[in-house]
Amino acid sequence: xxxxxxxxxxxxxxxxxxIAAQAREVRKDDRIERLEKLVAAFKQAAFGRKSEKADPEQxxxxxxxxxxxxAAIHAEDxxxxxxxxxRTKPRSANRGSLPAHLPRVEVTIEPESLICACxxxxxxxxxxxxxxxxxxxxQFRVIVTRRPKYxxxxxxxxxxxxxxxxxxxxxxxxxxxxxxxxxVSKYADHLPLYxxxxxxxxxxxxxxRSTLADWVGRAAFELRxxxxxxxxxxxxxxxxFMDETRAPVLDPGSRKTKTxxxxxxxxxxxxxxxxxxxxVAFTYAPGRAGHHxxxxxxxxxxxxxxxxxxxxxxxxAPGRVGPNIWLAYCWAHARRKLVEITRTGATxxxxxxxRRIGELYRxxxxxxx
Length: 369
Description:
Elements (H helix, E strand, L loop, with lengths): L10 H37 L12 H21 L68 E3 L7 E3 L14 H13 L4 H9 L7 H27 L3 E13 L4 E12 L11 E7 L4 H7 L5 E5 L18 E5 L1 H12 L5 H21 L1
Parallel strand pairs: 3-6, 6-7
Antiparallel strand pairs: 1-2, 3-4, 4-5
């Protein structure tokens, strides 16, 4: 911010400085406008109507870079402007209230003096309160477990010592919390093990990626009963969803990947106020054939909601031996095909199908409240 002493006395030089400042302001506004238009276009492609959507993952990084550039320009603008000058356009920010369960650390800032200029004492008549989000970076620590040994001086009957606690990895380095952190980072936050090893090395903890992989494998073995219990609970439901999705899998020896499949078995009774909690379990299979679905669903009796994939027809084939399963096909998949047909021209039958499905959706919305 310039003051009067920094301004030139020459009128011509002063005019040139003013014109240059105005040009910079115009260029800044143009940059902001162009960037905001790009952000709007990306958001429309990622989050607009289904027919206009693209894969959001294609735009995440671009959106981050654009929004970061806009924030930098706004910060530059605020630094160049007087602090008492009102903003012509309020800055867009995510200012939702911070969750109540987070711990609060209160800091009270008192005036330099509580004595008034007249000599009297000041008393509190109110306060301004602001909340900011703080973070304590992940900190590794060492849990030292001591098991003292005791012996009797009057006899030689032996040594008394508390038994060693049962740990997930006996005689291993990690606590159960450390293993849980590695699992969440890998599977929920998509942080590969080699990157986790790099993060740990910044605090002087040198662990090989293969060591972390060993922890993950042992934890997977211990979690298998939880997975089996979840699958068993889902199969006791009267209605389930099932779908399969591709997953690249390493093919040992070929230095390539092959296509495997994750089969999702899910329950969600919330739309009709069912009592069972929502749940989903994923099972890996090397292929997409119907016999994989039959193996996963062994013991289930009820309605199975699926897409139009023909592999599920094996579950209702004539003469099939096993529990009764009724297939309920997905209206969204059926409607999508009809909508595609209506776009090709006048198609009364397809248009009537879309209208009837819309009526069903309306009835469902009323039933859900």
